[in-house]
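In response to reviewer comment 3 from the previous cycle, which asked for concrete evidence that the modeling workflow produces usable outputs, we include below a single protein chain processed end to end. The sequence was submitted unchanged, and the resulting structure tokens are shown without manual editing.
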Amino acid sequence: MAFHCSAQYLSNLDTYTLRTMRYSFLILTLFLLFNSVGFSQDIPVKQKNHGIGIVPQYAFMNGLRTDLDFRLKKGKPNWLVISPEIFLSPANPTVYNYDSMWGAGLELQHRYYLNPKNEIPKGFYLGYGPLFQYFSITAQRYYTERVFENGIEYYKVKLAHVTTGIYKAGVTMTAGYQLVTFRSSVYFDFYLGTGMRLSFDDRLPSGLTHEFNDWWASYGYSGTLLTAGVRIGMLY
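The workflow returned the following structure tokens.
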């Protein structure tokens, strides 16, 4: 699958990457500060088998993602992360010319922590899993309509509000490092990975998918991608 690249793509990629790096650096700095003042003493803790968190950078896509972490077997380093997502945005004339957008998604990840003796999920890990997203976008566009008059077929060009449903499926592989503090109850998870996406819509060939395929965070993107970010949450 070809890697889509353009000037707009590179510009968006640079902006998103810089924002993510700055945000991650801020979170890491705060974590080290808390540790330095004694919030992370080595004290006995109970094994953590569940977690709940958010992924702040989804706000850049008008979205909210919540991560639910489950240890698959007590005492083992295998975890399942279930990530429901919602997206909602009014008219956006600056980035994309649409009247409204909403969407939902679900991502699953099998995660393996490289230190199997940890009572809490921390340190380096590897993860992989599938993703599915749906977006409904309404925009004012010109489109052709077939009509019949007096037994003759005509094509008319009309300006109207067109709603397109975009379906996106893919897989993602990540590697990361999860820091845990506040008596092993709060985590900061930094990750980097790659994956593939395939998007199509319910109005082929006249849908809006091609208009939202500028770069890998676009709603209708198809191709390979890089992903990076930070999760923040609690363990229990």
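The radius of gyration is 22 Å. We consider this sufficient to address the reviewer's concern, and the full set will be provided in the supplementary archive.
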